[in-house]
Amino acid sequence: MKGYAMLKIGESGWIEKDRPVCGPLDAICKPLAIAICTSDVHTLWEGAIGERHNMILGHECSAEVVEVGELVKDFKPGDRVLVPAITPDWNSLEAQAGYSMHSGGMLAGWKFSNFKDGVFSEYFHVNDADGNLALLPDSINTVDACMLSDMVPTGFHGVELADVQFGDSVLIIGIGPVGLMSVAGANMRGASRIMAVGTRRVCQEAAKGYGATDFISYKDGPLDEQVLKMTDGKGVDKIVIAGGSVSTFSEAVKCLKPGGKIGNVNYLGTGDVIDIPRVEWGVGMGHKQINGGLMPGGRLRMEKLASLIAAGKLDVSPLSTHVFDGWDHLEEALFLMKDKPADLIKPVVKLAD
Ligand code: NDP
Ligand code: ZN
Predict the structure, then answer these.
(1) pLDDT tens, 187-215?
(2) Segments making up each domain of the chain, as ranges
(3) Which atom of ligand 1 is nearest to the CA of 292?
(4) What is the pTM of this model?
(5) For residue 335, which phi and psi values (nearest 5 degrees)?
């Protein structure tokens, strides 16, 4: 089979590989549509997870099941499915402790294009199919379904990590596709003021549609100065970080109220140390929590998030600004994500309706 792979850091291309083998609990699937992620850019061009040779990229897609193992109960060939980016081992101790995304070790629930071949491939392997896959509802098209692999669960997880409550003022740092879903999630959870950080106009427009009330450009000076000015020096209740760098945490801590919470879902591709400002962190006693997490996967969560789209409560269609037809456009779509032109939110390659 053909797959589009990271050949080494900074180099990618099509390669031939054997079709993966299906174990008793597994499924083999073929993609119906695939989306490119900023994480693919971190992995391939920044070498953020280290060197990988001939590893097929990609972790966001909707798919059709082509084969299942003899112990799989709830899926069969021909089923159209949602595929989460994170596919934990559900019988691991970490999963039993509530941290399935770290099943088998730190971040080890993230298998596609990390520890094994990803989904930019004619066929791909899914471990623990009954625990990880979810049926794709008929009312959700294959392109929108890709947003359920990672953008919706990650953006919403940022909101969970920040523990957004009714009436909270919330700062969302970064309004690419992940941060946009954090805006939508914070709005659903009853945030009052939602301040969004990002400069791309297309993202700002989408953020407004999802409930953002104020906009801030990180290019206009430190975020904390701007936020404190806009909040009469008080700061915000909660912050979701979905963009920026290791230095963003310092800005966030400075404009968070005592007792506030920061939820980070940004993938820190570079830098060694995250700075926490001593004084603004209450000289160690400010009750300002900082939490960072990889998105949870799992069938139940996928079904619940999909039900928001099916019920008309969440519209993910504004995210897919660039939709291509067919495998021939995959490389173009990947490079587009690297270059991030001003009109881009998310590139998707459609392979079937
Ligand atoms: P994008 O690159 O599309 O968006 C990044 C956002 O951050 C943009 O709005 C950008 O603004 C803004 N930004 C850039 N620089 C700064 C800065 N210095 N300060 C504040 N904001 C800044 O990324 P995605 O939305 O696709 O992904 C966001 C992050 O989430 C990535 O690091 C990705 O790898 C990670 N991720 C994490 C997952 C998880 O499970 N935790 C899963 C999936 C992704 P502008 O408008 O100017 O471009
Ligand atoms: Zn992703």
Answers:
(1) 999 999 999 999 999 999 999 999 999 99
(2) 2-150+295-350, 153-292
(3) 41
(4) 0.97
(5) -65, -30
What's the CA gap between 348 and 33, in Å, rounded? 7
Distance 286 CA to ligand 2 centre (A): 33
Choices 3.40.50.300, 3.40.50.720, 3.30.450.20, 3.40.50.1980: CATH for 153-292: 3.40.50.720
User: Which ligand 1 atom is the nearest neighbour of the CA of 248?
Assistant: 19
Q: Specify the fold of 2-150+295-350.
A: Quinone Oxidoreductase; Chain A, domain 1 (3.90.180)
The candidate with the shortest Cα–Cα distance to 113, out of 336, 324, 267, 246, is 267
Question: Does any ligand 1 atom lie closer than 6 A to the CB of residue 297?
Answer: no
Residue with tokens 């900074």: 10
Q: Does residue 151's CB lie within 6 angstroms of at least one atom of ligand 1?
A: no
pLDDT in tens, 294-345: 999 999 999 999 999 999 999 999 999 999 999 999 999 999 999 999 999 9
Residue to probe by mutation, ligand 1, list 265, 295, 321, most atoms within 8 Å of CB:
265
